Structures are given as structure tokens and as C-alpha cells.
Request: fold
Amino acid sequence: MRIEIVADEKALALRAADILCEAIRRNPHAVIGLPTGDTPKAAYAEFTRLVNNGAIGVGAVRAFAVDEFLGAGSGVSGTNAAFFAAHLDVGFGALRIPDSAADAADSHVARFSEETRAAGSFDLCVLGIGANGHIAFNEPGSARDSRTRVVELTDASRRAHATAFGSLAAVPARGVTLGVGDILKSRAILVMAQGAPKAAIVARAIEGAASPDVPASWLQTHANVTWLLDEAAASQLSIEARRAQPPPAV
Ligand code: GLP
Reply:
């Protein structure tokens, strides 16, 4: 695992956009998994700037949202579809997002699962980490071999989205997520975290035992994971973990 620690949100955004561009330059037909959340917003703004000024072409890239709420209306504020429309409208060859209007029993969910499977191994899966250690919507309790599926959201995760949906009551109780097993099939994984509130869970995910209690800890079992952290999010890592940083580029 690589741990890259940068000064602040701005540096994190630049580096994350850079890693996305590298993956697409390496394979213009790349299949990429993308998260929502506050963390990637600045990175997506930088990436959008690079696409719009012609620095990178994304017309052949196939992108998949790593998760979505279920049982909200289509395009309702707070859904991941609304997030991508607002923050990453770059003209990917395809951007597949589960239909947030679907309910758990809907065949649409099975179809999304089938599409991710048919896309094969992702070239790059980008992730954030929830305060409880979730990746995508793999909440605590998620097994290492869990697959794309419908999940019950924890109260903590629902509360984190109350503002975006307008109220806690409006946040759906369920979501659909790529499974931990699907994420681990990716050739490369980039996890971003910023801010002091993430410091304890980041340290636990990187240095604690790999277990379903902290789904992000399963990433320890993948050979090509980059943790991209700002100083605040890295502040509870041990000296040994900080030494795992690659040397600065010259
Ligand atoms: C959300 C999403 C995740 C995201 C995480 C962190 O609930 N389902 O995909 O990575 O929580 O969000 P944030 O970056 O806002 O802390």
C-alpha cells in the first residue's frame, strides 16, 4: 500500500485529478469507479477543468458510480445522480449510476450488478471513507467477498446525508453498492480522506486488523492501493505508516 500525505484540500484535489488523468492516459478506454461525498468535490472540479481545457479526453472512458441511494425519486437533490450532474459533468463515454427511483426488488439493481460484472476489473476504483469506515455503501459488517447488492444504510450514514436531502426523514433507508469483493478486483484503488474528523478511522483502516468491522481495512489485502490523505486526516498514523510514503517526485 502507498500512503501519500499532502498539505491540504487543494493539494489533495490536484493529486487526485492527476491520478485519474494518469489512469486514463494509460488506457483511454479505462473503466473507473467513482465516489460521491464532500471529499472528491475539489478533485472533480480540477478534473473537469482539465477535461474542459483539452488536457485529457474522456470520451471512451466508462465510469461507474460506486453506490447510490434506493427509493428516492430520480435526480432528487441528495442522490448520487444529482451529485454527478452537479460536480462531474465531463462527457464520459458512459456514466452508469443505479436508478435512485428503483426499489430494492427492482430488476434495475440486478442489471447494474450485471453491468459492473460485465465491465470486468476496473482499471481504477476511487473511494472515500465514511466516518464509520465504510467504503462506497459497504457498511460495517461487510464481508471481504461481498458483491454488488442492496444494503440497509446505518443511522450514521443517513445522518451524514440529511442536509443534502433536506431532512433526515427524506434520506432513503437503503442503497445499492459495489461490494468489497468487486472493489478489490480493481487493478488500482485510490482512497481519499481529508480533515481531522477522519484521522481516527483512517489510522484504524490502515493499521488495525483487517475485519468487517471497518470495511476500509479490507483494502490492506489489495496489492495496489494508494491512500491519499491531507495532513489532518493522516495525523493519527504511526511514524512507521508515515514512512510508507513514496519519496517525493523530483
Ligand atoms: C458517502 C458515500 C461514500 C463516500 C463517503 C464519504 O456516504 N456513500 O461513497 O465515500 O460517504 O463521504 P465524505 O467524503 O462526504 O466524507
